Amino acid sequence: AFRDGGIRRADGVRPGRTSSPRAVGGSSRRWAADDAGVSGVLPPPQDKVVPYSSNSSLSRPSVTAQDLGEAGAPDAAPACERSDSLPTLYVQLHGDMARRLEQHEKPLQVQNDFLFKLGFKDPWRVQEEGMNTEMGSLIRFYAGKPHSIESSERVQLSGTYNVRKGKMQLPVNRWRRRRVILCGTCLIVSSVKDSQAGKMHVLPLIGGKVEEVRKHSHCLAFSSSGPQSQTYYVSFENFTEHLRWQRQASKMVSQRISSVDLSNCSLEQLPPNLFYSQDLTHLNLKHNFLDASRSLVELQRFSKLRSLNLSNNHLGHFPLSICSIATLTEVNLSCNCLSSVPSAVGDMRNLQTFLLDGNRLSDLPDELGDLPQLSYLGLTFNEFRQVPTVLEQLGAVERLCMAGNELGTLTLQAFRLLRIKHIDLRYTHFMVPDEPDFLRHVTHLDLRDNQLSELDASLFPKLEVLHCERNHLGSLKLRGTFLKGLYASSNEICQLEICPMPSNLTYMDVSRNRLESLPEWLCDSKKLEVLDVNHNQLSQLPERLLCSGSLRKLLAGYNQLQKLPEKLEGSQMEVLDIQHNQLSELPASLFLKADSLRCLNASANQLESIPPSSLSEESRSSLQELYLTNNRLTDKCVPMLTGHGHLRVLHLAYNQLQSFPASKMAKLEELEEVDLSGNRLKAIPTTILNCKRMHTVIAHSNCIEVFPEVMQLSDMKCVDLSCNELSEVTLPENLPPKLQELDLTGNPRLALDHKTLDNIRCFRIDQSPSSFSANEASAAPAVWSHGYTEASGVKNKLCVAALSVNNFGENREALYGVFDGDRNVEVPYLLQCTMGDVLAEELHKSKSEEDYMTSTFLVMQRKLGTAGQKLGGSAVLCHIRHDPTDPGGCFSLTTANVGKCQAILCRDGKPLPLSVLHNVGVAEEYQRVRQHKAIVTEDNKVNGVTDSTRIMGYSFLYPSVIPQPHVQTVVLTPQDEFFILGSRGLWDSVSPAEAVEAVRNVPDALAAAKKLCTLAQGYGCGESLSAVVVQLSVSEDCCCCCCELGAPPPPSPGLFPPPINVVIRDALPPPSSCSEISSEVSTSEMSSEVGSTASDEPPQSALLPEAHAGVSFPAEQRAVGGGGGAGSCALHPVCLAGSFQRQLSSATFSSALSDNGLDSEDEEPIAGVFSNGTRVEVEADVHCLRAREHPVSSQPPVPETPDRTESEEAADEHEGGGMAEVPRKAEPAGGAESGSTRTLGKRRGNGSVAPQERSHNLIEIATDAPTRKPGGYFTAPAQPDPEDQFIIPPELEEEVKEIMKQHQQEQQQQQKPHPTDQLPIDSFVTLM
């Protein structure tokens, strides 16, 4: 029994009805040859493969060989079937070649084996997947060989057309109906009746011409080359055929050599018309199903054949017929499961290149030594345990590749008489013995990935290039006489000894080691051009290193450098990377003497200034790229930039800039990309319009209030002004034609009608509060909130995608994901759109975290369809889940990943990995790849495609590369602060420890995600980036429900207004109906687009990143707002009628003179009050406490005494994470359990909760010294401390007095009672 599409037939005829060639079809009912009533086989179009549809899978386990009769047995003739039997069955994997099933193979068993190798474990699930109609993109069966238009065109084109020979002007030549074939390198014209036996005209096309005939429609003229050239005119019936023939013939005539490419054509035998190409010299037949004994016998007819590629044909044994082709100079028989090489191979006397990689060879015949011209022998990834002795006879061999063999101890006596220069011994796990005499001819040695702990390469006296990456070397010795290139990264080298000095050394890579110093001879190396010493422990560089006249590129990042050498005379440096060091200054003459410097990356240092570019107005600077992200630069550095007139890329993110003068920006006319994020800028200079080539402006996480006029630049592609204080945006009528990205999120006061901006590829803006649906808000959890960002690469191609679902499923769940397609857009987009739905379905099928996550990834493999056949992508998925049926259960975080997308969890301030990288460096993965006979290339990629052994898509690499993920589940605790999901580019540039440290003190999730991507770009990442930051606020009661077991279940959370940040400014009108949102705090949590959820979770108030304020503040802690009623907990928040959940807001008081945030009594920081020198940020709580069951009197609360000891205050601040809590008096009898007087919940390990008091809905603005108010809130002082008085210059004294006078008048007006000061407690206050 088959479902539709399980088996297809080539001609659309049901099996058993006719004897003509058939393609594959299927039926959901019982298929029997004698059942005349069976239907369901879809008729495919002629001469093309049945397109992928929902009818594509063989499914039922009841299918047996008896059901199919002898359908699985190959016939004597490969391309046809017997008239008295079912057609031959073919299987097609990942939409590629279709292979004939062997006699012993059963379709159902083939499919089940495929699914088990893919990663499924449960037999019942394998059966269910086999019945799915989407399996056709991974595996499908055909009754009769399918035909592909693309491959058949490459094999041959044929048809009957009107043909005319000779010149068109001669009346003798007439149009005649002829059979025309285009195959190999020839055009064949014959009679229609006797096309095979009659006279045939063969026209060689190599070097000839194919031209259109203008006087005749759809007519082509084919001409041969040479003095005796002939011309045939062929008239086609329609334009489609005309175009097909012209395209194929143009490829032939453009070739300089006589070559034919028939790879990936599912050939079982060679096309007969191919042998008319007698001049053929190069033939590519890789990735087919040719038979060694029958299909390749006729290759001897090609008398001039020089190159033959038969790799990946699964020959099984060596094709003896090719041994008689004496003209062969290159033969490739890789990946054919060969177990032996015959002695007849010695007959190919002209053979120079012999590739036998990826087979099962363990020995070579002695006759191989009879090949005097053999220079390149490929034996990688076979089963050799020792070097073949026949190599002693191969005196001409210069390149020997034996990577991936278990050689053990290398016996070098075989090399005694050899002149081998290139030796590839990767993945051989051998030990080099002390026999230098046998290695005197070796010039290139590759010892990568061998787990070597020591290496004395001085045994190779003529060594020129050494590759020893990814070992465990502690020391390295080399002879430097002939050394040209040293590649020794990713080791543990502490000592490097090269003697004598390598005068010919041009490239040296010793990155990711443990070097503490560099040898002095580097300064005297006359030919050294590139030096990579990244990721070491260097504290200083050689004094004369930068004076080298040959050094062009120096990579010295991720070290412990505190100072660079001052000597720069004669420097020819073009690229200097010194990021992630401890530099406080750069050499004063860096730009003066190193005038060839084009790129400088000094990010992540402690720079406070940069050196000048010249000592006069004229500058010779050729600097084009300058990266100074994450330093301590101030406004003083901006004038130093104007001398770099050729500057194209400028990154100054996360410094301490407060302004960028317009006059300085005007001088950078060639600027194309600028990143000023994470500073304290209030505006972008208008002179940016002078930069006519500007295409990228990134300035998020600043204080910008006015949208810059960048939209008038015609080349503008990307504008990112998120997390600022924009209130309105004025856009021109005609936007830049190349604009692809506009990000305005995190500007809560911004009102913009963005309907006219829908044509922008990526436009982001905060959603209005009214856009939250009741369903979304009602299920919004309070334990997490998120922010995410995406950034295009240098080619402006966004190959990443992010998934964020705050309210996932029916319970309190969330789902987040990041997907990276490397260079393709299709796979990340499909994963983003589909993976959430797939996981939701799998949750109903399996309760085990590992099972449902694994099944989600495996099912997505088929959901990718045809896009996943040739393309692939990395993926990481995080699922927060709580089981509502378990009252004592906790929230758990389940993470699954494939590829290089990773996730980390910040627990107690330290990164906890949640994902694992799968590559050939992992022992189990390497063994699995070897088991499936895949080849690992020199760049550590499987079959040269991907360096990940588990990844989504790339199904054509099955079974070496599979989508089975690594799954890990952790129980969330109060010590868990946040977790980060990132794409490959993010983790290649930012380490997990640095990522945690960078965003731990950034209270807003969107600003945190933005910062991570900006840091990665500032560190030199040019790839697409995506980051998701999910902030957690897990309390103790999340793991211990305090509800009574017998009590009815609490109601679900109600619809809450989104949390906002309130701004109160001096000299502004009283609050109106529109809320002013504070943007001093990186961003508000209003937008669901950026991950914040409209829930009972309080927002991050008074968000002031240290990069903004210039000083370090303690991390703002998040609080879980639960119901305040009796018996409530964080797992079961209660929203009673007529009440709102607790919402935390921030009041920002602006003043010309403001306090520094210290209490006048104890000089300690006031909890909940933060200052940046010009503003005082005060935490406030605006909520309503009226409950239907327990109405609260409107009587104002009894004020509590503010007198407390310093020790009590310190204890409260320490316990509450910086939020002071005032102790409550004893409650009257009967009212002790009232929801209006209970604390919102116990203090969290990573957050604080202020007690609910009856006056929390009041925001008071005081003009005197700070006074502690009931409920733990404070008012800001108006008078500064005498120690904080400013020194006023005499020329500004009058102006300052006038300002202070106006300020005092404003304060007197503010002392009057505010209309909202005496609001009843059951009202909800919203300040606009």
From TrEMBL:
<dbReference type="InterPro" id="IPR055071">
    <property type="entry name" value="RA_PHLPP-like"/>
</dbReference>
<dbReference type="GO" id="GO:0046872">
    <property type="term" value="F:metal ion binding"/>
</dbReference>
<dbReference type="InterPro" id="IPR001611">
    <property type="entry name" value="Leu-rich_rpt"/>
</dbReference>
<dbReference type="Pfam" id="PF13516">
    <property type="entry name" value="LRR_6"/>
</dbReference>
<dbReference type="Pfam" id="PF00481">
    <property type="entry name" value="PP2C"/>
</dbReference>
<dbReference type="GO" id="GO:0016020">
    <property type="term" value="C:membrane"/>
</dbReference>
<feature type="region of interest" description="Disordered">
    <location>
        <begin position="1297"/>
        <end position="1328"/>
    </location>
</feature>
<feature type="region of interest" description="Disordered">
    <location>
        <begin position="1187"/>
        <end position="1285"/>
    </location>
</feature>
<keyword id="KW-0677">Repeat</keyword>
<feature type="region of interest" description="Disordered">
    <location>
        <begin position="1"/>
        <end position="81"/>
    </location>
</feature>
<keyword id="KW-0597">Phosphoprotein</keyword>
<keyword id="KW-0464">Manganese</keyword>
<keyword id="KW-0963">Cytoplasm</keyword>
<dbReference type="InterPro" id="IPR036457">
    <property type="entry name" value="PPM-type-like_dom_sf"/>
</dbReference>
<feature type="region of interest" description="Disordered">
    <location>
        <begin position="1071"/>
        <end position="1102"/>
    </location>
</feature>
<dbReference type="Pfam" id="PF00560">
    <property type="entry name" value="LRR_1"/>
</dbReference>
<dbReference type="InterPro" id="IPR050216">
    <property type="entry name" value="LRR_domain-containing"/>
</dbReference>
<keyword id="KW-0472">Membrane</keyword>
<feature type="compositionally biased region" description="Low complexity">
    <location>
        <begin position="53"/>
        <end position="62"/>
    </location>
</feature>
<keyword id="KW-0904">Protein phosphatase</keyword>
<feature type="compositionally biased region" description="Low complexity">
    <location>
        <begin position="1073"/>
        <end position="1092"/>
    </location>
</feature>
<keyword id="KW-0479">Metal-binding</keyword>
<dbReference type="InterPro" id="IPR032675">
    <property type="entry name" value="LRR_dom_sf"/>
</dbReference>
<feature type="domain" description="PH">
    <location>
        <begin position="154"/>
        <end position="254"/>
    </location>
</feature>
<dbReference type="Pfam" id="PF13855">
    <property type="entry name" value="LRR_8"/>
</dbReference>
<dbReference type="Pfam" id="PF23010">
    <property type="entry name" value="RA_3"/>
</dbReference>
<dbReference type="GO" id="GO:0005737">
    <property type="term" value="C:cytoplasm"/>
</dbReference>
<feature type="compositionally biased region" description="Basic and acidic residues">
    <location>
        <begin position="1"/>
        <end position="14"/>
    </location>
</feature>
<keyword id="KW-0539">Nucleus</keyword>
<dbReference type="InterPro" id="IPR001849">
    <property type="entry name" value="PH_domain"/>
</dbReference>
<dbReference type="InterPro" id="IPR001932">
    <property type="entry name" value="PPM-type_phosphatase-like_dom"/>
</dbReference>
<keyword id="KW-0433">Leucine-rich repeat</keyword>
<keyword id="KW-0378">Hydrolase</keyword>
<protein>
    <recommendedName>
        <fullName>protein-serine/threonine phosphatase</fullName>
        <ecNumber>3.1.3.16</ecNumber>
    </recommendedName>
</protein>
<dbReference type="InterPro" id="IPR003591">
    <property type="entry name" value="Leu-rich_rpt_typical-subtyp"/>
</dbReference>
<feature type="domain" description="PPM-type phosphatase">
    <location>
        <begin position="785"/>
        <end position="1032"/>
    </location>
</feature>
<dbReference type="GO" id="GO:0004722">
    <property type="term" value="F:protein serine/threonine phosphatase activity"/>
</dbReference>
<dbReference type="GO" id="GO:0005634">
    <property type="term" value="C:nucleus"/>
</dbReference>
